[in-house]
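Meet today's protein:

…
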Amino acid sequence: MSQPARDVALKDIAIKDVVIVGAGPVGLCLALELAALDLSVTLIDAAPYTALASPDDDGREIALTHASREQLAAAGIDIPEEQMAPIREAHLYNGASPRGMILASARGKGQGREGQDSIGQLVANQVIRQAAFDAVQGVERIELVTGRRVSALGAGPGWRSVRLDDQRQIPARLVVAADGRLSATRRLAGLSAQIHDTGQRLLVRRMAHSRPHRQTTWSWFHGERGLALLPLAGNTASLVMTLPSRDAERFKALSSDAFAAEATRLYQGSVGEMTCLDALHDYPLTVSHADRLVADRVALVGDAALGLHPVTAHGFNVGLASVRRLVEALTSHAGTTADVGAATGLASYARHHQRAIVPLWHASRALVALYSDTRPPARLVRHLALGAARQAAPLQWLMEGYLAKSPVRR
């Protein structure tokens, strides 16, 4: 953790170009891209240094598009090939119906995006966090402050400042909130957000199974339950369950053998008999969308801008897209020698990213609402919707249109 600075007036403190609050993968990627433009960056995170330097396995798998993988690599974040599992097809099912919707596929075409034989890769969140943290080590233009929270934002002519809980103040031309869907920095900046506590829990667990998954992701909606299977290496997969809190508590109380038996039943034997490979991980499920993405010398990225439901499987990709759009907007309107926090660049970012994420927000909310409605009319609508969606899946083309673009090469 950085040592507290002496108590001096702000006018005596060198003004940073950018302060980023949140040293998760999105914040770290943004720091690397800005540092590559010779901008000075301070990263602030409430977690202790050891937690960032050696992240725990949280059980979560991240679906990376090819564009996101390219963006990470361009920023210097290298993920070993052996840590990735390809996704070749994605299916969506309505309850116990044997016929589903193919959301995306690389089969039968001999290719995915730009000749790829997959539509993306699954990577453990722990692996991405480790690779991102390792990439910022030794980067001269990046300073890391850990174990500290931001308690207030200040302002002056041509700068904003963050006040830490040890009373230090750090001034910068631009403050970026990358501190998650319940972002405290967003609130301190006076930026409102639609925050929806779904009343559900997200359970994830890695499993072994007796039949091959064919590198296919499966998603099922059973009334209030949402189930997904994410294919990993060999005959292993990550189970993702969104459940009402009461059901989640029941699953958490099961022994490993009982959990595996119940999972085999719920997943309709799609991959045969299952056995547990690790511990069960449990998370609250909240979705959010910021009403505005910028304020005076403040910008929101990642989940602070849009926290999607996991049914989309694209939350991290959307977060990286926000990084790409912010960097492009700042460099297009300010250049690398001008004011990085100028209003014109921030307005351009807000306009382009909001235009991209609003349809995703509404489409994902509508999809979840449709598939979680247990009333008979809704079941009929789901059945009809799946039939129509086999020909044109709105969420699929929304995702492809906004996420499958290659990062701009500079």
